[in-house]
Design a protein that fits this description.
Blueprint (H helix, E strand, L loop, with lengths): L9 H10 L3 H30 L57 E7 L5 E6 L5 E5 L3 E5 L23 E6 L3 H4 L1 E10 L2 E11 L6 E9 L14 E3 L5 E4 L21 E5 L20 E4 L4 E6 L6 E5 L6 E6 L3 E2 L31 E3 L5 E6 L12 E5 L5 E7 L2 E8 L7 E6 L5 E5 L4 E6 L4
Parallel strand pairs: 12-16
Antiparallel strand pairs: 1-24, 2-3, 3-4, 5-6, 6-7, 7-8, 9-10, 10-11, 11-12, 13-14, 14-15, 15-17, 18-19, 19-20, 20-21, 22-23, 23-24
The structure holds calcium ion (CA).
């Protein structure tokens, strides 16, 4: 019998095996072949694993626990990603599903209404516990939208705001004891001869809801600066009645690095109590660290909310050209700006050294390339639309849509776009006590997105 060597064709090989001749030799050959195939398999899978391992993500800088296997709830359809455009920056994500996850489509029939178009540059919206909505206007006034469909005249009583550029009267949050203390908290760009800064204060909404009285400023993100960009400015109450404040790095080359130092209020998440006392000493080992700084390394945090079930603090953050981020905020952490970014400078050059990962900085849970310019956001904590429970809704400015983000185990598992095609810049989103979503636009509209009950 002719021995089988590398020149033998597979036809010859099989012919010999099945002819029943030279059985022992054939068995040896099969063993050798299996061994060869097995080693090839090992080599191949090794390569694949190596290729899929992120470059360098030190475990201690990871924002999230290891991804669990069961990421799908079984309710999420397997749709292509909602983003179809080319990215601004072609950086690889640090882990799977950090960008462009699969799409999801709301199954509940929705009714979409424009309730008013008469708002003047609205910026912040929040629901009143007894129904209706409170809406800030950038110029320095407050409007109340009542359940009967009427919009109040502009309500005054706030300090002078610097409403140039991105400044103005900005976010609004109600005191957790609003029904008894009638306090409304706002953030604003404080106007002074020395410049402006992100400030927070509260006033009392009078009984007839015609005025805000006794306003007190309780926090200032020092120092003052002559500039009208990147105020950040969301304010959110935690379950324990303390308040988180987001700031920005003021959008100037000379101020952006201040996001990386702890001796100022720029590019930070700040933790205060309801009277403005700075809480916590999260950086006690650092020199010159101001109290109250909860996290740092932020660019412009214009969305913030607390997960209704886990209590986790989440923020949306505007990137430069590319690299908008969704971050899970942990105390004492550095979120990287402007050392690392998934975006580019507006002239197309890399940010810093073009790094996307660095030891000692947190990775975003999710990023958008190209940008959607994420603004205000809210978790859906109502029961009305069951499939939306605990989903995150983010107003997109440049993206011109509302992003619905499905989160499981601190990772994004699906994304949907609502109100695409309206041509609006969506500034902020709130959940009403009726379980509907309410959304304000830069053009002055108030949208209601509710379950269509066929009425
Ligand atoms: Ca970051």
């Amino acid at each position: 019998m002719q021995s089988i060597n590398s020149n033998d064709s597979s036809d010859t090989f099989s012919a010999e095996i099945f002819s029943g001749r030279g059985m022992k030799e054939s068995q040896e050959v099969i063993m050798k072949l299996l061994l060869f195939l097995f080693s090839f398999f090992l080599l191949f899978t090794g390569c694949v694993q190596e290729a899929s391992v992120p470059e360098t993500v030190p475990a201690e800088t990871s924002t999230s626990p290891p991804v669990q296997e069961e990421v799908s709830s079984g309710t999420i359809p397997d749709q292509p990603p909602v983003e179809k455009s080319a990215p601004n920056a072609r950086y690889l994500p640090a882990f799977e599903a950090q960008t462009r996850v699969g799409g999801v489509v709301t199954q509940t029939p929705l009714a979409i209404q424009v309730l008013t178009e008469e708002l003047q540059s609205p910026w912040g919206i929040t629901a009143k516990p007894e129904g209706g909505l409170l809406i800030t206007e950038k110029g320095g006034t407050l409007r109340i939208y009542s359940p009967d469909g009427t919009l109040s005249p502009p309500i005054k009583g706030f300090p002078d705001v610097d409403s140039r550029g991105q400044g103005g009267l900005l976010d609004i949050a109600l005191s957790p004891q609003f029904e008894t203390d009638h306090r409304i908290y706002v953030s604003f760009a404080e106007k002074t001869p020395e410049g402006s800064l992100t400030a927070v204060g509260y006033g009392i909404l009078t009984d007839g809801a015609s005025e805000v009285e006794d306003f007190r400023t309780i926090y200032r993100a020092l120092p003052y600066y002559q500039g009208s960009g990147h105020f950040g400015s969301r304010i959110v109450f935690a379950e324990d009645g303390t308040l988180f404040v987001s700031t920005g790095e003021r959008q100037a080359d000379e101020t952006r690095m201040m996001a990386q130092s702890l001796d100022n209020g720029y590019g930070k998440i700040i933790h205060i109590d309801r009277e403005g006392n700075l809480l916590g000493d999260y950086f006690s080992t650092e020199q010159n660290a101001l109290p109250g700084i909860y996290s740092y390394g932020h660019r412009n945090v214009q969305g913030m909310d607390i997960h209704p079930e886990t209590g986790d603090l989440w923020i949306s953050e505007m990137g430069p050209m590319g690299g908008d981020e969704l971050n899970l905020i942990l105390p004492g952490r550095n979120y990287g700006w402007p050392l690392v970014s998934y975006g580019l400078e507006y002239d197309g050059t890399p940010v810093n050294e073009g790094e996307t990962q660095r030891e000692g900085t947190e990775q975003p849970v999710y990023f958008w390339n190209p940008v959607i310019t994420p603004s205000g956001m809210t978790f859906y904590d109502a029961d009305k639309i069951a499939e939306w429970k605990n989903n995150l809704f983010i107003g997109g400015l440049r993206g011109s849509h509302i992003a619905r983000i499905v989160i499981e185990n601190r990772r994004v598992v699906a994304e949907e776009r609502l109100l695409e095609g309206e041509g609006e810049r969506f500034r902020d989103v709130a959940v009403g006590v009726d379980g509907a979503l309410y959304v304000i636009t830069d053009s002055g509209k108030l949208y209601k997105i509710a379950q269509d009950d066929g009425e």
